Amino acid sequence: MTTNDYGLQAGNVKIGTKQTIKTVEQGDAAEVFVAQDADPRTVARVIQLCEQLGVKLTYVDTMRNLGKACGIEVGAAMAAIIRE
């Protein structure tokens, strides 16, 4: 598998708000990426969860770049790397 600039690899990433929050809540997230241009109301919950649970939080400049890093054609507000 190839790794991109953010360390995301296909197969070990959950993309999108619902999937990311679920992954964090279940304790399966090693790191969460949040797009800085995402709606603050959308990302507030996952940011709070990451701070509470000690999950590393990394900000990406745009949703478009995060989506591209995840290998999808559309923007993504957030994504989580799954613990191995």
TrEMBL record:
Residues 9-82 form the Ribosomal protein eL8/eL30/eS12/Gadd45 domain. One of its GO terms (cellular component) is ribonucleoprotein complex. InterPro entries: Ribosomal_eL30-like_sf (IPR029064), Ribosomal_eL8/eL30/eS12/Gad45 (IPR004038), Ribosomal_eL8/Nhp2 (IPR018492). The keyword Ribosomal protein applies. Gene3D superfamilies: 3.30.1330.30. SUPFAM superfamilies: L30e-like. Keywords: Ribonucleoprotein, Ribosomal protein. Belongs to the eukaryotic ribosomal protein eL8 family. This is 50S ribosomal protein L7ae-like protein. It comes from Cohnella faecalis.
